[in-house]
Design a protein that fits this description.
It comes from Adineta steineri. The chain has 350 residues and is mainly α. 67% of the residues lie in helices and 2% in strands. Helix 3 packs across helix 4 (66-86), helix 5 runs antiparallel to helix 7 and helix 13 (241-248) crosses helix 14.
Length: 350
């Protein structure tokens, strides 16, 4: 009898196979309190004890200074809260049209000139954060951040606007290309530049090996999220990597698709180490910065994996059992709702 026959799934072991070590930023508690106070000033209710979004950034940027980590936590905790608010698992009372308006409003936050009218307290806070960043971040970072955010947002808006496309399961290659955009992984990588004052010439950023290396980081984080969130998403008819794999190969069970997705991540670990050796030299000064950038990118991988086991969003009341045995029970809609509750007070503010 297989695990799935008993209504359970064994998660792939992504942590012991990960070649990158885990660290946590020593400024986490101080920065977390400051971010919470900043959100409260805008009337945004947030509980770090429940979601631990600030912990996420402390794990993936363990070497950031207090100021740079604080600016990062402010923005990304907002992005997490907006994502929770509009996610179809939770935001059933919000129409797709309203979601489009609210998402577009966040992009308007980054316009350098002209009038800006925030539709929510989230957008108002995000505008405040961006004005702060315009004076502390390099023009190159600002350009990369806005471009990455715009591409990811436009992809999400396109899916919302096209119901047929949104509900149709794509093939694996198409899904990976879309997922690299909607995961906003490029933004997480761009913040390495900001946090550590890394300035590289265009020749580096356009290098094929470095681009493939960064895709490994984005894919690992996105695929891991899909593995860990599948149990909740499947009862809301949302597709992700597991669904796509089963759609591509109808003979796969859920467990087999999980195993295949896990192997895809392990393959990316190996790809990262191999591609890293293919990075060319641009001279000692630039090479030092490139090495710093790559080393910090590995923290994104390890921090992302461990953080998923620190919050109830993915495993609910099963979290301790999942940590111990990597075994999860397939949820019914009723139990999923209990195990995935978010702060509904934020939802009521729309």
């Amino acid at each position: 009898m297989t695990a799935q026959d008993t209504g359970t799934i064994i998660l792939p072991d992504l942590i012991s196979t990960c070649p990158f070590k885990l660290e946590c930023n020593q400024e986490y508690e101080i920065v977390s309190a400051e971010t919470n106070a900043w959100l409260t000033a805008y009337g945004i209710l947030y509980s770090e004890s429940m979601t631990k979004y600030n912990l996420y950034w402390a794990l993936i940027y363990p070497h950031a200074s207090r100021t740079r980590l604080g600016n990062t936590c402010d923005a990304f905790t907002l992005f997490f809260l907006i994502d929770d608010l509009l996610d179809t698992s939770y935001g059933k009372g919000i129409s797709d049209k309203t979601k489009q308006q609210l998402l577009k409003n966040t992009l308007d936050c980054f316009q350098p000139t002209g009038s800006f009218k925030p539709l929510t307290s989230f957008a108002e806070a995000l505008r405040d954060w961006w004005q702060r960043m315009r004076y502390s971040a390099t023009p190159h970072f600002q350009e990369r951040f806005i471009n990455s955010y715009r591409i990811g947002l436009e992809t999400i808006l396109s899916l919302l606007a096209d119901k047929k496309t949104c509900q149709s399961v794509p093939n694996l290659g198409t899904y990976i290309r879309i997922r690299r955009k909607t995961s906003f992984g490029d933004i997480g990588l761009a913040f390495i530049e900001y946090i550590f004052d890394i300035v590289l010439p265009d020749e580096c950023w356009s290098n094929e090996a470095l681009q493939r290396l960064m895709n490994c980081v984005i894919d690992i984080s996105a695929f891991a999220n899909d593995i860990y969130s599948f149990n909740v998403e499947q009862i809301h008819d949302q597709y992700n990597l597991i669904t796509v794999l089963m759609h591509d190969d109808s003979s796969l069970t859920i467990q087999q698709a999980m195993d295949r997705a896990g192997q895809m991540i392990i393959d990316r670990y190996n790809d990262f180490e191999r591609i890293r050796r293919e990075i060319p030299s641009w001279g000692k000064e630039i090479d030092t910065q490139v090495e710093k950038y790559i080393n910090e990118a590995t923290c994104i991988v390890s921090g992302n994996l461990h953080w998923r086991f620190e919050i109830p969003k993915y495993f609910g009341s099963q979290i301790e059992e999942v940590k111990r045995a990597r075994c999860i029970k397939l949820l019914s809609p009723k139990t999923a709702l209990r195990g995935s509750m978010i702060d509904r007070k934020n939802k009521e503010k729309i």
